[in-house]
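Now read the record:
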Amino acid sequence: MLGLLLIVAANSAALADRGTCVGLAWVALVDGETTRVQEGPDYDVHRFTDAGGHTWAVYDGNHAPASADGPDLLKRDGVIVRRAQIDGKFQGYIVEQNGRQNHFFGAVFDGTEKDKAFFERVDFGPRGRLRCRLEAQSR
């Protein structure tokens, strides 16, 4: 049993070195990117900064500050990534699952089809959920 726990702990550390869980998904970090979590009363905001100083964030909670009423960007792993809006202006992307939301926002997004490339590093599927569970167990 101890051996299995050590393997899980080692795998958790290795996975955490390459990415982080943002609630509904695992996000792979790119070289030089850092992340920190801002905790709210019933939500978290995961803030990312790349090596060039560009920032973006993911809100993880139940009531994103934007509406997911724009067109779909993509569908993958059983979730739909929808364009989000505030007062009719593009404000990133929202993913909803079982009443929970991830709102991806920041200057790295422009609301065009080219934003699909960003989501290649976001894993909403079974492997991403496993990585999130392992990260939570390692805390």
Notes: The first strand starts at residue 19 and ends at 21. Residues 2-138 form one domain. The chain has a mean pLDDT of 87. The first helix runs from residue 2 to 18.
